[in-house]
Amino acid sequence: METRTPPSVLQNHSHQAQERRVSSSTPNQVQEPSHPNEPAVGWRIFRWLSTIVFKIHICLVAVLVIVLTVLRLRSASKTHHFHPKEWYPPLLASIGSSGIIAFSWQAFTGCSPSMAFKTAFWFSPVLSLASGVFFVIVGSRGGLAAGVILIVSSLIVSVYVCWINHRLNYAIQLLSLSTKYPPTNTPIFVFGSIVIGVLYAAFMVIGIGGATSITSSFKALFIAAILLSLTWTLQVIKNVVHVTISRIKYFNLAWGREKDIRAAFYDIIKHSAGTISLGSAIIPFISFIHGSARAMRLVAGDSDEFLFSCAPCYSELASMLRNHGNRWGFVHVGVYNKGIVQASYDTWEAFEKVDLEIVIDSDLTVSFCVLCGVSSGAICSIISGIWALVIHKSYATELAIYAFLIGYFVCRIGMAWPQACVSAYYVAYADNPLHPRFDSTVPDRIRELRRRLQV
């Protein structure tokens, strides 16, 4: 199948390409893999173990949900503190709403990246503030805590939006460029992934309701286990979408052809399921460490106070972890069947060779996707919370919290494909920056950031 390519990208020839040399290093001449690479034996065993652990955890959690549901049904006539007709409908309605919102966000992004980007950055703080106010109005201890966190977060995000306002134009330009020609059948693939996420979340909610109805001292442990499983599984679904789409986009950008999305998906499930499940567990943790290190570095500045004496060491640790585990590595996982550690290291090394790390550090794509998720979670929490507040006030806080978490993660599944397109664009550029398919967008941004650093 031939790949459609933007005319603006094809019009750059050899003379223009020479002007776009980013550094003195020679770019890699990447070769198309004829078949998936086989990692080292040790990594293959570890990847197999990761797959087994993920499948076993799914089975165990499914058994737990079924057992809790049976216990709830058997004790229905004896239990008076739990009312399923008032507990389940608000939460299930918010889960359905999360699927609609997720698909709407990804469709909005595909149709108008510029408007979607601005909407996410300007309306997400408003929606999270509204959700926080609702939690405060409910008045419970958990509601007050959640409300304060959301209100403070909305104020921080508002300041953040003002701070990065000058970076929005470039982020919108790159998002528009990388998503202009998405893989064929992307909406169908994303819709199917969202439906799977919604159905799995609904199944997990049944288990949470069963755990809530029992009087066991392990109730909190059961709920925590189900929520952790829900989070990990939805992350895996999101990253399967991410790896599949980024594989196709990389093939498009690097070699000028498009793979069938079903074939790419089957390859990913067959060869990279263990890598994705492992990466879904460790990369959010590494991203949190790296984000907190950046925040600490910004607060510390040039201060030599004892309070910030650990900032340089912590920052160095975060950078080391980031080099060996980052979301950009998912591109090489899909294309070359590498392990997540090797893929992350190779990808970051390629970024450094072409001075792309200064652009990556200021990238707003992940912030955009996170804010879309936050807005979805806020809307879902308001839907579930208000419904519960009307029919059974004591359920309002817990249902709104569950709805927020599920709305966030389901929306991230829908927003995985724009993030994958941007990731594939950056990684393909880093592997071969002189390829005629790339225009001057990224090189111009590198030069601009260099000038700012020199001032």
UniProtKB/TrEMBL annotation:
Highest taxon of source: Eukaryota
Cellular component terms (Gene Ontology): plasma membrane
Compositionally biased tracts (Polar residues): 1-15, 23-34
Protein's cellular compartments: Cell membrane; Membrane
Residues spanning the membrane: 45-71, 91-108, 120-138, 145-166, 186-208, 220-237, 364-390, 399-417
Topological category with respect to the lipid bilayer: Multi-pass membrane protein
Predominant location: membrane
Keywords from the UniProt entry: Membrane, Transmembrane, Transmembrane helix
GO terms assigned for molecular function: transmembrane transporter activity
Xref: Pfam families: Choline_transpo (PF04515)
Region Disordered, residue ranges: 1-37
Homology family: Belongs to the CTL (choline transporter-like) family.
Reported function: Choline transporter.
Protein name: Choline transporter-like protein
Species this protein is from: Cucurbita maxima
Gene name for this UniProt entry: LOC111478231
